[in-house]
Each structure stands twice: as structure tokens, then as C-alpha cells.
């Protein structure tokens, strides 16, 4: 739609298609993710982002070039790159004396920063250090959030939503039971520590239909520390969370259920036409022959008068 | 009694072989099965977390995963292409979108008018039979230009036109003018949709020689185009202000008349029928005095 609203028309069909693909749609696909390096990224942040990139792989891009910028001061580069790559979430790694092993997770809305959360990677064990079988790429993981802090702290609340956005992959309608083999666990303490762990699910027999779950750690395992945050204003966040009209369930009017669960409907009747109402026929209300004659005469007279008027008009 | 005990024993042994799938939690764990998410708001065991972090986290994750997957396994299953799948309920966590919800495209001026008038777009056939060429010619696009060229190998110069004019050139310029007009209208529509104020277009240059009316309009517009809207400009002895249709709108500072809104089809029909009725029901007015006088006059002459 905005393609038509552009002042400069796309010159080629291919160009037009590319622009159309970038247009906002009512139902969006999985969000694309960008990983990039800030000023002086450390080996740890580089590896960490690469690991997360591996977890997110089909919907992510890893940019290995160093960028001399500080996202919390000027995020225009992120906005520009997100626009270019049509991405909506990003991760930036940097390292300084003041903020060692700094990771910034964030997302954009309409190519502008929505929120950014800075985390320090205190401890980190890479995926490659766990010597075992990994999960298939592109699999939908189970997400676990442990600890009451996720709901009490406003920053953590947003971080929980951000992590869900990061790793939930895509809205699906059906899922293969055997394909449930990856768990991401996020545990938050009151002091702002966040433990990120990743496990592979092993389904064991339990003598029942539901299997017994065993877990095997596959990495990466990261201990984050919450640092600075830059959260979206309530207005912007509300606008970003807007559900398009196409997806809203259509409300059925005038249907309710009572305490016993039986369906009740309210019907609206039109206005009743009393003149056409069939009342009881009675001999006393019948017209006499004289009355009927009079009525016929009246009708004839009226007809004649109408005809005469018509002839007059024509003449 | 012995048999019962035996069976119970056997069952117990069977059960011992497997580890339990039931997990006890102090507070209920919240689930969002649609996104495969579980939120455990129970307090963490700080002592264990600090001393034996990894093992504690793994056991915690195992318990919560067990709870989550117990819920998933309860869902109705289906078989799709040799795989057993479960149908997930719609997710309850609301995640922000990447781009804003698309707005419907604003209507163009013509579309607005057509909607008000109830004009529907008629579908035209892509090919049309050309009597002259005796073949099907596309309405536009591929092969249309070639057909046009074949058809117009000769163009007659009409009688009212200078015989030396190049009709091909004329046709081409007409076409390019149409394209330019279309483009201008497209831009105007965009400007209207974005609520951008565009400068009013001055006098249209229709030919190399402007008419007296156009010149008068141009002079009036130029005079009024000062900061004080031409209030302090001197006037010539017999100067007249330009008048005519559409001139008023061009002069800066003049109040613009508001256009009447486009009537609805019903209103328009009613109005037209009223006019028709007025005409049909017209009766000649009889001036009795005049008629009598005339009658007397004719009689006297006789």
C-alpha cells in the first residue's frame, strides 16, 4: 500500500516486489534478528552472540564487523541496519573497563528502537564446551521463567517479554510431540542476576501416556547481570502491541450463558403492524349490504375523479 | 486375599521401575501453552542456588518442563503425515509487532467521487477485435504499440487543421501530455492523503499565445501577490479586475468559496425529479383583466 503512496515509483517489477515484501502486514512472520559488534567486543561477547545466533539461526544474521558506536547514546546505526535487513530484534556485544562483557538485547518497532536492555555476561560456558548431541536447528523451544522476580521488577518483566520474543520463534498451530526437545530456562534472582541455561529434553518411559522428562545441558550457559535499560513509553508499547482487526475474534452479540451453561439468546423483534393484525371475526362487526354498497360507490367515484384529472393534465 | 496382595505387589514393583511424572509446587505454575512457556513464581532456594548452581537450576528446569509437557500431552493429538502432532491453543502472551498495523489505503479523488456516486468499475476485456486490422488487439501493453503503428501508417489531416502539421508529432505530444497529467494527479492524490499543502497551480499554459482573459487574470494575480495582498498597489485609470469561472480562486487572499459536497445518488435523483415535475406541471398563468381587455378589443375591431 505504501508502495503506491511513495512519490517515486519503483522502476522494475522486482523492485516493486521487494518493496511490497517490506510493507507492514496484518499477520507477521517470525521477526528477523541482527547480531553485531560494538566498540572493542571481547572474545566472550563475540562467542556468546555467535551461540545465540546459532540458536536463532534461520531468522538471524550475524554481522562480524566492529562498529564504533554506543547504542545507549546513539542507536541510529541499529535503526539503519534493521531497516536495511528488515530486522526487528538485535543483539550487540561490546567490552569496556566500566562495563565488561556487555551484551545489549533489544527490539525495534517500525524501524525505531522499542526497548533495549543491557546485560553483563559474568560467567559463560560456550555450546562447544558441552561435549554432547545438540538439538536440531530451527526447533521451537520450551521457555521456562523461574523466580518471582520476573513479575516484581518492571525491567525484568520487560526482559521476560523480550526473551520470549527472542526465542519463541513463530506462532504455530500444531507441534510434533517428538519435536519437543529443547528447553531454555531463565532464572532471575532478586539481586538482578539472570541464569540462562539450555537443555535437551530426553523423553523416558513412565508407564503412562505422558513421558518422564530428563534434561541434559547442551549450552550455552550464561550468568547475566542486569545493567542499564531503555524501555519504550507506555504509549509506544501499546501501539506496538495493537492487534489488527483481522485477527480480533468477532464477538457474537446477544448470546449469553447462564450459571448452568445453557445458551441464552436475545431476539430483537421489529415493530408490529397492528393494522394487519388478524382479530377475531364476529357477526356483529360484519358490514351490512348497504354499507358495502356505499363503499363501492365511493371507490368508483374516486377512480373517476382521478381519471378526469389525468385527462385534464394531458390536455 | 492373597491374589489381591500379589497383584498390588506386582503393580508397585512396576511403578517403582519408573520415575514419577508428578511434580509438587507451592504455587501454581502459570502456562502459556501456545508459546510453550511456563512461568514459575515460586521462591528460589537461595542457599542451593549459591552453592550448587548448575544442579539446582537443572532440577528446577526439569520439574517445570515436566509440568509444561504434562499439559502439552493432555492436548488432543492428530496424525499428520506419519507424525503425531498436537494442536496448540492460541498464545496468550501479547508480543509487540515489528511494524504497525497496516492502514487501509486512502481513496483517490476519483475513487471518492465514484464511491459517492455509486459508480462501479467495469471490467474490460484484455483483447479487443479491431475491424481495420481484422485481428485481436490488446487494450494496452505488449503488442498494442505495434498494432497502433500498423493501423496508423497514414493519418488524415482534418480540414480545420493547418495542412502542414505533422499528425504523428501531434499524436505523440497529446499522449505525453496525458501521461504527465496522470502523474500530476497521482502526486496530488499522495499529497492529499498525507495532508501536505501544495502550492496552488498558477495559470495553465495552453498555447504560446495567451488570451486576453488569461492575461487579465495573470495581471490580477500578479498584483495581489505581494505581502499585503495587493492592497497598496496603484490602479490604472480604466483597469478592471479579472472575472470569470475559477479566477477568484487563483487570486491570493481572496476568500475561497466552499464547494458543495457531492450529493448522494438518492438526493440527486430527488432533485432532478423535482425539476422535471416543475416543468411538467407548469400551467400558463391567466391574467383575467388582460384577457378580457383583449377580447373586447378584438370585438370592437370587428
UniProtKB/TrEMBL annotation, chain A:
**GO cellular component annotations of the record:** nucleolus
Q: Name the keywords, alphabetized.
A: Nucleus
State where the protein is found: Nucleus, Nucleolus
Q: What superkingdom does the record give?
A: Eukaryota
Q: What is its main location?
A: nucleus
Q: Which residues form the Brix domain?
A: 31-235
GO biological process assignments: maturation of LSU-rRNA from tricistronic rRNA transcript (SSU-rRNA, 5.8S rRNA, LSU-rRNA); ribosomal large subunit assembly
Gene Ontology molecular function: rRNA binding
Task: Please give the InterPro entries that the UniProt record associates with this protein.
Answer: Brix, Rpf2
Family label: Belongs to the RPF2 family.
Q: What is this protein called?
A: Ribosome production factor 2 homolog
UniProtKB/TrEMBL annotation, chain B:
Give yes or no: UniProt keyword Nucleus: yes
Where along the chain is composition biased (Basic and acidic residues)? 238-254
Transmembrane spans: none
Q: Which GO terms describe its cellular component?
A: nucleolus; preribosome, large subunit precursor
In residue numbers, the region (Disordered) covers 238-269
Origin: domain of life: Eukaryota
Keyword hit for Nucleus = yes
Q: What name goes with this protein?
A: Ribosome biogenesis regulatory protein
Organism expressing this protein natively: Manduca sexta
Amino acid at each position: 500500500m505504501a508502495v503506491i503512496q511513495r512519490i517515486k515509483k519503483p522502476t522494475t517489477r522486482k523492485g516493486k516486489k521487494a518493496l511490497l515484501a517490506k510493507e507492514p502486514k496484518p499477520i507477521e512472520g517470525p521477526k528477523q534478528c541482527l547480531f553485531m559488534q560494538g566498540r572493542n567486543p571481547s572474545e566472550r561477547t563475540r562467542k556468546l552472540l555467535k551461540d545465540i545466533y546459532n540458536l536463532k539461526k534461520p531468522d538471524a544474521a550475524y554481522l562480524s564487523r566492529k562498529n564504533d558506536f554506543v547504542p545507549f547514546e546513539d542507536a541510529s546505526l541499529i535503526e539503519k541496519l534493521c531497516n536495511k535487513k528488515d530486522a526487528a530484534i538485535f543483539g550487540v556485544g561490546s567490552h569496556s573497563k566500566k562495563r565488561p562483557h556487555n551484551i545489549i538485547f533489544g527490539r525495534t518497532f517500525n524501524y525505531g528502537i522499542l526497548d533495549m536492555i543491557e546485560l553483563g555476561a559474568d560467567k559463560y560456558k560456550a555450546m562447544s564446551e558441552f561435549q554432547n548431541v545438540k538439538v536440531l536447528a530451527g526447533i521451537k523451544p520450551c521457555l521456562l521463567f523461574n523466580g518471582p522476580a520476573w513479575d516484581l521488577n518492571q525491567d525484568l518483566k520487560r526482559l521476560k517479554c523480550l526473551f520470549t520474543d527472542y526465542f519463541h520463534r513463530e506462532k504455530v498451530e500444531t507441534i510434533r510431540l517428538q519435536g519437543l526437545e529443547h528447553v531454555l530456562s531463565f532464572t532471575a534472582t532478586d539481586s538482578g542476576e539472570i541464569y540462562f541455561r539450555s537443555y535437551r529434553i530426553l523423553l523416558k518411559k513412565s508407564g503412562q501416556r505422558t513421558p518422564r522428562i530428563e534434561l541434559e545441558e547442551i549450552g550455552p550457559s550464561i550468568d547475566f547481570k542486569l545493567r542499564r535499560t531503555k524501555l519504550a513509553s507506555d504509549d509506544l508499547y501499546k501501539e506496538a502491541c495493537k492487534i489488527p482487526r483481522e485477527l480480533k475474534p468477532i464477538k457474537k452479540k446477544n448470546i449469553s450463558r447462564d450459571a448452568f451453561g445453557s445458551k441464552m439468546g436475545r431476539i430483537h423483534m421489529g415493530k408490529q403492524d397492528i393494522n394487519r393484525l388478524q382479530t377475531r371475526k364476529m357477526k356483529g362487526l360484519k358490514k351490512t349490504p348497504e354499507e358495502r354498497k356505499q363503499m363501492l360507490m365511493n371507490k368508483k367515484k374516486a377512480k373517476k375523479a382521478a381519471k378526469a384529472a389525468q385527462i385534464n393534465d394531458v390536455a | 486375599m492373597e491374589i489381591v496382595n500379589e497383584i498390588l505387589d506386582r503393580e508397585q514393583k512396576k511403578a517403582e521401575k519408573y520415575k514419577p511424572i508428578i511434580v509438587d509446587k507451592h504455587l501454581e505454575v502459570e502456562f502459556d501453552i501456545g508459546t510453550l512457556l511456563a512461568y514459575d513464581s515460586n521462591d528460589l532456594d537461595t542457599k542451593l542456588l549459591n552453592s550448587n548452581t548448575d544442579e539446582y537450576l537443572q532440577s528446577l528446569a526439569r520439574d517445570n518442563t515436566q509440568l509444561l509437557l504434562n499439559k502439552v500431552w493432555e492436548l488432543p493429538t492428530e496424525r499428520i503425515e506419519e507424525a503425531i502432532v498436537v494442536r496448540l491453543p492460541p498464545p496468550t502472551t501479547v508480543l509487540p509487532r515489528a511494524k504497525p498495523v497496516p492502514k487501509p489505503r486512502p481513496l483517490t479523488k476519483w475513487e471518492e467521487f465514484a464511491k459517492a456516486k455509486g459508480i462501479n468499475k467495469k471490467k474490460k476485456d484484455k483483447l479487443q477485435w479491431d475491424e481495420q486490422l481484422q485481428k485481436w488487439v490488446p487494450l494496452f501493453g505488449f503488442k498494442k504499440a505495434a498494432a497502433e503503428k500498423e493501423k496508423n501508417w497514414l493519418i488524415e489531416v482534418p480540414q480545420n487543421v493547418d495542412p502542414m502539421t505533422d499528425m504523428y508529432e501531434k499524436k505523440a505530444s497529446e499522449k505525453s501530455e496525458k501521461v504527465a497529467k496522470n502523474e500530476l494527479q497521482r502526486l496530488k492524490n499522495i499529497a492529499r492523503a498525507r495532508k501536505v499543502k501544495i502550492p496552488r497551480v498558477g495559470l495553465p499554459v495552453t498555447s504560446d499565445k495567451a488570451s486576453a482573459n488569461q492575461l487579465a487574470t495573470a495581471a490580477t494575480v500578479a498584483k495581489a501577490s505581494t505581502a499585503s495582498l495587493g492592497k497598496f498597489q496603484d490602479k490604472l485609470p480604466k483597469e478592471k479586475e479579472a472575472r470569470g469561472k475559477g479566477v477568484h480562486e487563483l487570486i491570493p487572499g481572496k476568500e475561497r468559496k466552499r464547494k458543495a459536497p457531492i450529493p448522494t445518488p438518492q438526493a440527486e435523483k430527488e432533485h432532478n425529479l423535482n425539476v422535471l415535475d416543475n416543468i411538467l406541471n407548469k400551467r400558463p398563468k391567466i391574467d383575467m383583466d388582460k384577457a378580457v381587455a383583449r377580447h373586447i378589443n378584438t370585438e370592437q375591431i370587428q
